[in-house]
Amino acid sequence: MLDLTYETPKIKTIAGAKHDWELVIGMEVHAQISSNAKLFSGASTTFGAEPNSNVAFVDAAMPGMLPVINEFCVEQAVRTGLGLKAAINLTSAFDRKNYFYPDLPQGYQISQLYHPIVGEGEVLVEMGPGPDLGKKRLVRIERIHMEQDAGKSIHDMDPNMSFVDLNRTGVALMEIVSRPDIRGPEEAAAYITKLRQILRYLGTCDGNMQNGNLRADVNVSICLPGQYEKYQETQDFSHLGTRCEIKNMNSMRFIQQAIEVEARRQIAIVEGGGEVDQETRLYDPDKGETRSMRSKEEAHDYRYFPDPDLLPLEIEQGWVDDIAASLPELPDAKKARFMADFGLTDYDASVLTAEVDTAAYFEAVAAGRDGKATANWVINELFGRLKKDDRDITESPVSPAQLGGIVDLIAKGDISGKIAKDLFEIIYTDGGDPAEVVEARGMKQVTDTGAIEAAVDEIIAANPAQVEKARENPKLAGWFVGQVMKATGGKANPKAVNEIVAGKLGL
Amino acid sequence: MGDLNKLGLAEARDALRAGDVTSVELTDACLSAIDGAGALNAFVHHTPEIARTQAAAADARIKAGDAPAMCGLPIGIKDLFCTKGVPSQAGSRILEGFLPQYESTVSQNLFDSGAVMLGKLNMDEFAMGSSNETSVYGNAVNPWKVDSRQLTPGGSSGGSASAVAADLCLAATGTDTGGSIRQPAAFVGITGIKPTYGRCSRWGVVAFASSLDQAGPMTKSVRDAAIMLEAMCSHDPKDSTSADLPVPNFEAMLTGDIKGKKIGIPKEYRMDGMPDEIEALWANGTAMLRDAGAEIVDISLPHTKYALPAYYVIAPAEASSNLARYDGVRYGHRARLDQGDGITEMYEKTRAEGFGAEVQRRVMIGTYVLSAGFYDAYYNRARRVRTLIKKDFEDVFAQGIDAILTPATPSAAFGLGEASDDPVEMYLNDVFTVTVNMAGLPGIAVPAGQDAQGLPLGLQLIGRPWEEGDLLNTAYALEARAGFVAKPEKWW
Question: For residue A349, how far is the Cα from the chain centroid?
């Protein structure tokens, strides 16, 4: 269930000295394919292993060694393509991208330049909290191709030598290339967030940006208002400014900063009468600036050509159909369903579907219960408490059944919301069945009006001055309610206490 | 039995099985022949310990009645094959000191079949050359000689050719990217077959041009070629270009009966300035096949003349990329660096020292033809030519042609140093053989005559894809009629 009509976010403009400028952004996201083995070898992909321990002969480019495609990685790429509603190319091919670097043992990266496995798709990007909350931008995907990751060169271990770790060499990556449909730093972050969410739902990339398993090259250009629309009409890039590519970003925050900084740099150049050079740049977060890495003239000539060690990759439509049939429910569909079936707000549904595990937890609790009440408990109490302990939903000490038990006790009127919070803390810390805990610890609400009346009578009798004041100013009745609650250890049903206090005071 | 090293595979196999001889005896005969043949410079790494161990094991298997096809047969392995724990340098300085921790699929197949490895054989550096003169070990020498003039054994499998022709081993492995089995086989008067691309696994064979490289046997007879080829072939999941097809019993297909077979004679192979002796040899071969009952058909392979230039674009292009891994970082030669040298200097100095002139030339050509702005004009164009060459062959096979007869080389073996100054002249040696690699077809060189100076001359038969058995049988019929029995006089 996709909404076909949605509001788009306001296009970010940056004021220059002479004009307002718009931003045009496209991204190449490198996502490590979740797979136990590398793209062309059986070596393990485990992160954090001893240097050079996950290296097959072919990864080290020993003479005469040959690559053999890992079928599971292909399946993952196809699954990703299907998840992005993209065309799957039944025939694709691998090319060699040639350049020299010590962490690239073959002297070439095996990639898919000419015939990628996945063609055009799309991502519906939803804006997070802020003025554009809930607004959406459709970002077109140009292509997805598979390629090998490089190893790691370490230059700071020894003053005279460099070291190379080949554990990462040959690990499978998907490069997901977007069209320049992103219009501001916040949209860029939202795009990565959404893409990451889909990949995690699909199980094709763990999205761990810190480990570098998801990183982006960001293409930024500027244009005057109106120019972008001309580009969209014609797909002619000449309506847009010259782009610069900011390489290898793996932080959401830095991506936004880098885009802003780079746009301002380009505006200053253009307004100063200069021309932006097409080049590759690096963002320095310490100095808050982008720096030229290499210009177009210095750009490598990668001498791409079809890899003669690998035959064209042929896959069958039936296999693709099987993968399509096994796709999980994706974020947009799940969110729509949560709103429809559980009556959740857009925001709550977004929060609960951000991660597959969270959504699954919520659904397990919400089954047969009030959706909104459950959502409140999961989002406010559970998430808050987990965050305090820096725990993941999968590490929650409170199971869905336990949380469900708490929600049930509230619904039945056995405990008040306030007691429920105490109960939650007990279950979180000590475990146990909520109903039994309530019973054992005498936490049940007192709804016995006789007991409440007795308590009210006692307090009225002991505080005649307060009674006088309350009769003059009924708002002061709350004081009596508080005293009763105190006297009953908070277990008295607040509604009943309110009514009895009012009656006895003659209000 | 005397002169055991002079036996071929089939004879030796039969003698081993009959108990007339042991593998240890055969092996010792070869080892002493090798010891006495330093002047040929054919064997560049000697492995007598491995040979004697394998021979003893083979004798035990034979005794136990478990003797596979190659059991106990001493052979040489071209230096291009990675052999576990044994130097494997591809004839290059850049792989100095490199000891593979793995065994190539082809050599493993041979060992599984009981073969005995005597050592590694000389070759042109990275299989780039037609005279064995680009080798870091110095050139191998042809056992055939005219007066005092030393001749090339051809290349790149020159060491293999020289060793087999001089009876230093019973047979040898070769590899063929543009003619590197067939040209040297023809130059020394032995048989060499390049099977269909995909028949032999390339896993563990140092790559020159991946889409063209194929291993094959170099032997003293067509029967021996059939025996050894079958042992070398297999479907190998470690090589994505390896064919998942059953390997037939090639030897069983050698009936010598080629009655009714259609043999094509391609007019485009009649080159301007072709020596009369080659013309005559070709005509004789045609007559022999006709005598054997084959139907001779004039055919046309119209794109033949573009094959050599296209080959010298595609092969260097692939080589320039395949050889990028020799950077001094992980194995092999690394240049001594000066204070302040960085990674670029390390690459430049290492590769300048490690690669010889011909390899450097081809890496530069390959880099050039793949470069932005030249890619379409050279590499893509050459690929289109390749498709047309392939189609030429498909067309004649579709007309019912079973095999094509051509000369194997444009001349007999030439003198060492005679062609090494002019690369283009050297490249012309491949003119009859490269088409076969470009089309991925099987091709075999069979000794079929001698020139006026007594030097051997070979003919080439080209077969349908995957029909090596049929091709070998045609070659067998040609061999029988050619009756080539000449041997070089021992001078070394």
Answer: 14
**Residues near A233 by Cβ (< 8 Å), separated by ≥ 6?**
none
Tell me the pLDDT of chain A (507 aa) as tens digits: 455 678 999 999 999 998 999 999 999 999 999 999 999 999 999 988 999 999 999 999 999 999 999 999 999 999 999 999 999 999 999 999 999 999 999 999 999 999 999 999 999 999 988 889 889 999 999 999 999 999 999 999 998 888 999 999 999 999 999 999 999 999 999 999 999 999 999 999 999 999 999 999 999 999 999 999 999 999 999 999 999 999 999 999 999 999 999 999 999 999 999 999 999 999 999 999 999 987 777 778 999 999 999 999 999 999 999 999 999 999 999 999 999 999 999 999 999 999 999 999 999 999 999 999 999 999 999 999 999 999 999 999 999 999 999 999 999 888 888 889 999 999 999 999 999 999 888 888 776 777 788 888 888 888 888 888 888 888 888 888 888 888 877 777 777 788 888 888 877
Residue A428, CB half-sphere, CA atoms under 13 Å: how many? 18
Pairing verdict, β A20-32 and A13-15: antiparallel
Return d(Cα A152, Cα B256) in angstroms, integer. 60
- Cα–Cα distance between A121 and A54 in angstroms, integer? 34
Tens of pLDDT, residue by residue over B88-106, are 999 999 999 999 999 999 9
For A305, the closest chain B residue by CA position comes to: B370
Taking an 8 Å cut-off on Cβ atoms, the answer to whether A108 and B102 are in contact is: no
pLDDT tens sequence across B316-354? 999 999 999 999 999 999 999 999 899 999 999 999 999
Which residues of A are less than 8 Å from B241 in CB distance?
308-311
Please say whether the beta carbons of A504 and A466 come within 8 A.
no
Extract the tokens encoding A209: 């940006």
User: Looking at residues B384-389, what average pLDDT do you find?
Assistant: 98
Tell me if A252 sits within 8 A of A191, measured CB to CB: no
* Of A341, A300, A82, residue with least CA distance to A198: A82
* Pair of tokens at residue A33: 């394919």
Burial (CB < 10 A; 0-12, 13-18, 19+), residue A503, is exposed
Distance CA A411, CA A409 (A): 5
Task: Give the whole-angstrom CA distance, residue B210 versus residue A409.
Answer: 72
Residue given tokens 């009649």 in the structure block: B270
- Going by C-alpha positions, the residue among B183, B162, B220, B144 that lies closest to residue B453 is B144
pLDDT digits 0-9 by tens, A103-125? 999 999 999 999 999 999 999 99
Active site residue B78: yes
Count of alpha carbons within 13 Å of A456, Cβ hemisphere only?
24
Distance CA B39, CA B33 (A): 12
Compute the nearest-CA separation of B163 from chain A (Å).
24
- CA B189 centroid distance within chain: 13
Token pair, residue B348, equals: 């430049």
Q: What is the ipTM of this complex?
A: 0.96
CB-facing half-sphere around the CA of B311: CA atoms within 13 A: 30
Integer Cα distance of B371 and B378 in angstroms: 9
b/e A119-156 (16+ beta carbons within 10 angstroms → b): bebebbbbbbeeebebbbbebbbbbbbbbbbbbbeeee
Identify residues of B whose CB sits under 8 angstroms from chain A CBs: 81-82, 88, 90, 95, 98, 100-102, 104, 202-207, 209-211, 237-241, 317-318, 320-321, 323-325, 327, 329-331, 343, 347, 367, 370-372, 375, 379
- Among A227, A221, A296, smallest CA distance to A262 is for A221
